[in-house]
Fold this protein.
Amino acid sequence: MKPKLSSHFKFREVNSSLLVTNEVGDYDFFKQDLLENLFNNELTESEKIQMANLSILIDEDESWKYFSLAKRVQDKYAPKERKIGYLILIPTLRCNLSCSYCQVSRAPEKAKGYDWDEDTLKRFESFIKENTMDHLKVEFQGGEPSLRLDLVNSIIDIVESNTQSSEFVICTNMVNMDQALLSLLEKDNFSISTSIDGSLSTMTKNRTFEDDTSKSVFENFNYVLENYGPKKIAALPTITENQINSPEEIIQTYNNLGFQSIFLRPVNYMGFARKQHKDSSQAINEWNNFYLKSLDLIKEINKTHYFEEFYLALLVREIFTNSSRSFVDYRSPQRFLNNYLVIDFDEQIYPSDEARMLSRTRHVDLAMGDLKTGIDESKLNEVNVWAENQTHPDCIHCAYQPYCGIDIIDDMSRYQRFDTIKKETWFCNRQMFLFDFIFEKVEQQDREWLDIFLKWISKSNEPITSYELF
């Protein structure tokens, strides 16, 4: 009985092999003459078995495979009811720092008219009752939200009164650490996120412009770490030209602080950053070189204890364990506002914090409604169309399409349009670099890196040696 091609598949040369993936991300490696053999009807028996295992070739009496594949596609891509599980809130836009890479998300500390008021809180409570899941995570951004802890406390009360469970993260620069903030840390469901860009001198260059202020930040950070434990505080770096040639500093800083994870993020091409860090926010080759050097350092650290690069580890888990797409910015279908959104100081609703930045700079209005009038469904649908790589002509033939997404917000910031050619974008080049790195290690059966991938998958320093995952 002759098998026939059943579904669209994609391919890419990886090392000396041909990587083939199907619609839902199943993959295998073949010799590079696979396509010639396929179209000449000269597949080897081994190749036929491999292609059948990917549901690319299906025998006439195996129609159940069509339904199985269709069910997996539906589970992966079918629209879900809108319920918000993650909120970013900006109760105040005022800030007490002026970071070099700020995305224009601040107002002067003493400014008027940049805070939520009682009417906003009432409208926010109505929104919570109508739109949120039983469990809700709230992230307080700014500005500097610790300047208005009274609003933070009011929001916490509203959320806890209207959900079954909740958790809260305040993103603070930690310049000031008063008793009111420490009291919030006593709550089991409350934690801090802050920015640590490297050594004290780097922090001064990027964020504080004063060594004494930088020292206060580190002192406050260590106080929280020592008195409340590592689960109560997290940190993120932003990589500028000050660090791009010396990854040792930032990696060692996070390792010395006791972190087991670091999220290496390039400076965004938005707001003031596009002027003050123009070169570093566009130099993709420099970024990839920095990233490779960082991974070499991370590999060495993993010889003694667990340490991950957050985003690469996220991709590894999603590729090899079929875990749900948890990083909302880069999944596809994106379906903005499906379970995540941002509410600004002026009640405007945005699909992401970066979208808020573009509106703040009057680059493009990406507000999708507000607390008074609700969500603009027409505008939302129009934006969502451009955020699906399953139908985008630049993505549908890419071997990495099942694992990837489209960052239309970054595209709009850099290229002033959603429909730019994807292979020419920063995002696509960065993603292809990461996926190539992962699959090159798998194709080579590089045990040193496969062991690290297994650590990251199990989130343990002593993972099971399940090489069959690869």
About this structure: The mean pLDDT is 87. Residues 355 and 366 are 6 Å apart (CA to CA). The first strand starts at residue 4 and ends at 5.
